[in-house]
Amino acid sequence: MSRSGRHFLQIPGPTNVPDRVLRAMDAPVIDHRGPEFASLGRAVLEGMRAIFQTAAHVIIYPSSGTGACEAALTNALSPGDRIVIMETGWFSHVAWRQVAERLGLVVDYVPGTWRRGASPDDLEGRLAPDRGHAIKAVVIVHNETSTGATSRLRDLRAVMNRLRHPALLIVDTVSSLASVDYRHDEWEVDVAVSGSQKGLMVPPGLGFNAVSEKALKASLARSTRSTSTYWDWHEMIRANVAGYFPYTPATNLLYGLREAVTMLQEEGLQNTFCRHARYGEATRAAVRAWGLEMVCEEPSDYSNVLTAIMMPEGHDADRLRKLILERFDMSLGTGLGKLAGKAFRIGHLGSFNDLMLAGTLGGVEMGLAAAGVPHRPGGVTAALAHLAQPA
Ligand code: PLP
Questions:
Q1: How far is the CA of 372 from the centre of ligand 1 (A)?
Q2: What is the pLDDT of residues 9-44, one digit of tens each?
Q3: Probe ligand 1: pick from 114, 145, 147, 196, max atoms within 8 Å of CB?
Q4: Which residue from 166, 200, 218, 322 puts its CA 20 to 30 A from 41's CA?
């Protein structure tokens, strides 16, 4: 069916790709071992260091975010190593616990409610008794995309420092990077994992690791060296010195990434974070006015990337999403795992502005009415009132 106007892609990633990024990718493929490629390679590696707020090594894989998770675990750890993963939602399970267990790691999965970020007290409770430092790594999802809860990394790192626990800190920034503040060096993160398709505004297909010196050393000291060539940090770093990659990179996605990084630098990272905070607050104002419940119950953990909303008892979230897609041509995020059918998610990240938010919330409000979901009208008005306040 032909549709008029633009589709609203308001899932929490992949996000809308700006025309500038699309145009930058619309170019002939070049020789990835030629001189022109080296300047592209150097530019994206340097640019991504600024986005991660780090002077450490950044690795770029032709992969999705899950590939970059696997890369982090494969390089930093050996089968049989014990690690702690904080349960925050669907992604702490599928992208981390499941991948780690398949790699032969012994996972201490610290239970969470799926209604808040990782708890510093729970982390302390798990690390404090480990006086022999058997735990080799702690994994935390910075922004849990299934629930709309952001973990307070600074506080979680402080727990590790207070206990003087030497475990590596591995952080999933797949849906936080370039949307909410993430400070790789200042927060002493050892390995950060990310993907191109969310805050970075690039199509899916690039995975990232930012790697501290401590993590690099750990990767050399492992009892069992990984047999993976594809994910090997050291192979990558050797080739990256001259701007190249050990195997064929995703050249045209890298053109897009170079443009996206330029756009983020033009806006200024802190302004990008403020823009996302404004949209997070405006969306929450709408949800409160509708009289609906957010999945995240802890105000200090509210996500500025997406808002996950609980459906009133007896109403199916996927029926609402289907109606909104068919009638208003807007995609919203589905409920994942135990939230399937019970919650839906509004993405408000990436290339996004005031009127796109107004349109998104307008579509949700019309959809709630059309689907007969009990709510109070006035959510859009509340959001617009928030947007009208000085930034
Ligand atoms: N981690 C988080 C927090 C995510 O949101 C996602 C995907 O949405 C992933 C990991 C997995 O990334 P991908 O789907 O690109 O493999």
A1: 32
A2: 999 999 999 999 999 999 999 999 999 999 999 999
A3: 145
A4: 218
